Amino acid sequence: MTTEPWARATFAGTERAQADVIASLTVDQRIALLEELLALAEASGALQRSREAKQRAIDELWGAG
């Protein structure tokens, strides 16, 4: 990871820094991070909205045929 103080001053710089942090995690830490992110997505309702949108798209495809 860079020690350049302005490295995170852009979206690209922040994205790169976050990727570096994730790449340095152990397998167990990555799994824990994914579990936390999944719980956050579930709590925010994002998973449910995604499931509903996917189901609507499938229903439309089946109804069109």
Mean pLDDT: 91
Measured as a percent range, the helix fraction is: over 70%
Strand share of the residues? Answer: under 5%
- Overall 3D form: elongated
* Largest sheet: number of strands, sense, barrel closure: none
Question: Which regions contain 5 or more consecutive residues with pLDDT less than 50?
Answer: none
Distance, first to last CA? 52 Å
Gyration radius from CA atoms, angstroms: 18 Å
Task: Write the H/E string, N to C.
Answer: HHH
Topology, please?
Layout: H1 11-23, H2 27-44, H3 46-64
Could you provide a short overview of the structure?
The chain has 65 residues and is mainly alpha-helical.
Description:
The protein is 77% helix and 0% strand. It is built from 3 helices and no strands. The protein is mainly alpha-helical. The radius of gyration is 18 Å and the shape is elongated. The mean pLDDT is 91.
